[in-house]
Design brief:
163 residues; 4-stranded antiparallel sheet; alpha+beta; binds FE2/S2 (inorganic) cluster; 10 strands; 3-stranded antiparallel sheet
Length: 163
């Protein structure tokens, strides 16, 4: 025959069970949150949406930008990227997509509508509308995002691959 549980033992038992539940409910997500960054792998390459094609005028460089986040353990590093889309005609595949990173020392070039050139503020380089070097120290034309596609919703995407 079992002995009756005393009120004191009953309260201690209930306290232990409730405490255990609270520890589990709070502790498991907290530990998962702490170790998650160490387990997550950032994508090294992927399609990145850069805008609606219909919003990009034919013949006029349209700027775009995006940010990449690299995760290395608990360290997160954000990097900004960008460029210009030049629609050469109404054909959605007739595009030139330039990287706005100067090929000299990686400063960001800006399109000058007045001068019809891309200007690099660091060493006064000039690039033509197709990205060709017109003046200054850059050793080669602006780089291109050669792989692109237009989704069914009309969004232009470029394929980004980490260098
Ligand atoms: S970084 Fe552009 S000219 Fe030097």
């Amino acid at each position: 025959m079992s002995e009756p549980v005393s009120r004191r033992n009953f309260i201690m038992g209930v306290t232990a069970v409730v405490g255990g539940l609270i520890t589990t409910v709070i502790g498991v997500p907290a530990i998962a949150y702490l170790i998650d960054p160490a387990l997550r792998e950032s994508a090294k390459e992927e399609w990145i949406p850069i805008g609606k094609l219909e919003d990009m005028l034919v013949g006029k460089p349209t700027p775009f930008s995006f940010t990449r986040v690299q995760v290395n353990g608990w360290e997160r590093t954000s990097t900004s990227h960008g460029g210009y889309v030049i629609r050469k005609s109404d054909n959605p595949n007739d595009l030139l997509i330039l990287n706005s990173k100067c090929t000299h020392l990686s400063c960001t070039v800006n399109w000058s509508e007045n001068d019809q050139v891309y200007l690099c503020p660091c060493h006064d380089a000039k690039f033509g509308k197709q990205g060709e070097v017109l003046d200054g120290p850059p050793p080669r034309p602006l780089d291109r995002f050669a792989d692109f596609r237009v989704t069914e919703e009309g969004i232009l995407e470029i394929f980004y691959k980490e260098a």
